[in-house]
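Posting here for the record, re: FE2/S2 (inorganic) cluster.
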Amino acid sequence: MEDDGYVRVAAADDVGGPPFVRVTVEGTEVLVGRLDDGSVRAFSPRCPHLQQPLTSAFLTGTTLECPFHFYAYDLDSGANTFPGDDDDLALPVHDAVERDGAVFVRVRGSGPGRSATS
Ligand code: FES
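Prediction output follows.
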């Protein structure tokens, strides 16, 4: 773990998507993916709607669309952008950066002493 709380989770070349890379950062399952602009994002592997997997969700810009019922989430804020009755549903998103040929994730709400497995 870096001093800033980020944990190395994958080689940069291994992160793309969809499909996204699934890792576990100290007990928290996370998907890591790359946007068209080359930046990386980290987010929950399960859709908040009915907990279906998001490994192969559709990605357009910063919008992730669940393939099951097409709820859509902004990967910067986690906000549900699908119009309807579930506006309060939010996708847990985490901090992700790429440096030194690797992708690092910091689980939001995490503290020192975290480790990663994939
Ligand atoms: S499970 Fe994702 S939209 Fe329903």
